[in-house]
């Protein structure tokens, strides 16, 4: 008596491989985009923390401060974003070694170059760049705007967020153009996920 050998033919295997390839081509870009969006949550959470620190400082001192140490803002290590409490990168807290070097005159905090290094695509991340929305970071005594600039997907575009005590009409070539941005809510100025 002959036994029948059962199995898959080469054509059936090729069809399965083609289907898996099509599914992977659809799923991988979406996964990368969702992963990048989850990294943006660092900027939103830390900008809200900086805003809360500024509001608490202003409630006590009747003015806003551009010094991150004075308001008590210090994000955890491994930060992908550089944070600016004023429109300058002149005095930044460095994070190039295992220990941070904070000074009382720091107006911002660098991204963690100890972890992410300083070569491209991270080069230039610690320099302040005014957002595309025309917002001006800094303080005029009655209002304040903070900025976060980060690298989330290893291309040449940086992700830029801002938060302000002002309610802003978003204009210009901003990722959020046409939207209303209430004070205390992070605003995406350059969306690196969609680039």
Described by strand count, sense and barrel closure, the largest sheet is: 7 strands, mixed
The succession of helices and strands, N to C, reads: HHEEEHEEEEEE
Seen as an oligomer or otherwise, the chain set is single chain
Termini gap: 66 Å
Residue-averaged pLDDT: 86
- Low-confidence spans: pLDDT under 50, at least 5 residues? none
β-strand amount: 15-25%
User: What gross morphology would you assign?
Assistant: elongated
Number of DSSP E strands: 9
Q: Please, how many helices?
A: 3
Helix/strand structural class: alpha+beta
Helix proportion of residues, in percent?
Answer: 25-40%
User: How many domains make up the coordinates?
Assistant: 1
Computed over alpha carbons, the radius of gyration is 23 Å
Write a structural description:
This protein is of the alpha+beta class and 195 residues long. The strands form 2 sheets. Strands 1, 2, 3, 4, 5, 6 and 9 form a 7-stranded mixed β-sheet that branches. Strands 7-8 form a two-stranded antiparallel ribbon. 34% of the residues are buried. The protein has 3 helices and 9 strands. A hairpin with a 4-residue loop joins strand 4 (138-139) and strand 5 (144-150). The N and C termini lie far apart (66 Å). The longest helix has 52 residues, at 10-61. 31% of the residues lie in helices and 16% in strands. It is elongated, with a radius of gyration of 23 Å. The protein has one domain (41-194).
Keywords:
195 residues; alpha+beta; 7-stranded mixed sheet; two-stranded antiparallel ribbon; 9 strands; 31% helix; 16% strand; elongated
């Amino acid at each position: 008596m002959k036994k029948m050998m059962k199995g898959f033919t080469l054509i059936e295997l090729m069809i399965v491989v083609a289907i898996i390839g099509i599914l992977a081509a659809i799923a991988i870009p979406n996964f990368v985009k969702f992963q990048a969006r989850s990294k943006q949550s660092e900027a939103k959470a830390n900008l809200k923390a900086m805003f809360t620190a500024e509001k608490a400082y202003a409630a006590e001192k009747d003015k806003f401060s551009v010094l991150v140490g004075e308001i008590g803002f210090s994000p955890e290590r491994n930060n992908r974003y550089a944070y600016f409490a004023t429109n300058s990168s002149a005095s930044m807290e460095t994070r190039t070694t295992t220990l941070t070097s904070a000074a009382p005159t720091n107006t911002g905090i660098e991204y963690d170059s100890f972890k992410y290094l300083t070569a491209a695509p991270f080069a230039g991340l610690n320099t302040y760049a005014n957002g595309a929305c025309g917002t001006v970071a800094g303080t005029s005594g009655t209002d304040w705007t903070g900025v976060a600039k980060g690298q989330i997907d290893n291309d040449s575009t940086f992700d830029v967020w801002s938060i302000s005590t002002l309610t802003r009409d978003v204009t210009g070539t901003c990722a959020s153009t046409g939207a209303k941005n209430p004070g205390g809510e992070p605003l995406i100025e350059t969306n690196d996920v969609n680039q």
